[in-house]
Amino acid sequence: MKQTLTRSLLGVTADGGDPTAVVVRFNEHINARDLAALGDLMTDDHTFVDTAGGSLTGKAACLAAWRGFFEGFPDYRNVFTTLTAHGDVVAIAGRSECAEPTLAGPALWTATIRDGRVAQWRVHEDTPEARRRLLGD
Asked: What is the pLDDT along the chain (137 residues), one digit of tens a residue?
């Protein structure tokens, strides 16, 4: 299933049964810098993986990292253009916007959904090979 996002889809709410809707809602909370809502959508063993492969595991640790990130980069936001769901894994293409140039530009993410929550949020390097592997582009 491949969906191209429009502005109207950004208002979708998660019902626990649609991994794509969970991902859209999770991103809305990132963009709003809403730590409580992010925590509600994380599994207790939530893992964040960055482009270098570094990871952080556990809801509390990830929320603390997001808190520091939001404090350091208050204008950061993600804009999704394409979501492709393969079962409980959703691949996302889009861009990040931020005054910090190293955080702005094209981006790829994957999210693994378990029981209506995000078990893993992974940021990928946006390369042609990664796009083919994740999105079939």
From this structure: 344 443 334 333 344 569 999 999 999 999 999 999 999 999 999 999 999 999 999 999 999 999 999 999 999 999 999 999 999 999 999 999 999 999 999 999 999 999 999 999 999 999 999 999 999 87
CA gap 16, 71 in Å, rounded: 30
Helix/strand/coil for 8: helix
Q: Which domains does the chain have, with CATH numbers?
A: 2-9+18-135 (3.10.450.50)
Cα distance between residue 8 and residue 28, in whole Å = 13
Cβ atoms of 99 and 77 within 8 Å: the answer is: no
Cβ 33 vs Cβ 123: under 8 Å:
no
Return d(Cα 125, Cα 137) in angstroms, integer: 15
Nearest Cα to 7, choosing from 84, 94, 100?
Answer: 94
**pTM score:** 0.86
